[in-house]
Amino acid sequence: MTSEKTRVLFVCLGNICRSPMAEAVFAHMVNRHNLASRFVIDSAGTAGYHTGESPDRRSAQTCLDNGVPVNHRARRVRKSDFAEFDHILCMDQSNYEDLLRMKPKGSDARVALFGSFSGRAEDRIIEDPYYGGDDGFQTNFEQVTRCSEGLLKDLGMLEL
Questions:
Q1: Which of 1, 41, 56, 100 is the most exposed place for a label (fewest CB within 10 A)?
Q2: What is the pLDDT of residues 7-35, one digit of tens each?
Q3: Could you count the other beta carbons within 10 Å of the beta carbon of residue 77?
């Protein structure tokens, strides 16, 4: 983690709904603020159920409906991610606990709930919309948008 770029990995369970959406929204916001050269952004899942798959169509469509392009293939979190990323940001408490169990001793990676960056209690946990209706994806989009802005502020890259 000696790179001058800030490396951010977004994590959910299967890497087809919430984390690729968070990756896409954060990348879009970073681009909009002309900060792309300062970041490496990716996403992964704590489980490998969907490795190699595109994001859930509802997640991708929600992003597109909001003007955010999505380009990702699902992958599982690797031990090397804890050395390659500065910030590993997950969507819920289960992801958080899984990541802490996976984190190698001596890793300096910051593991945190992505929802903690919005400043709103209702965003702390970004619920899995997979088994619900389309409105859950729009709720997730709004949450990850607020959290992305909060993360940029936390990193000192946007004014408070």
A1: 100
A2: 999 999 999 999 999 999 999 999 999 99
A3: 25
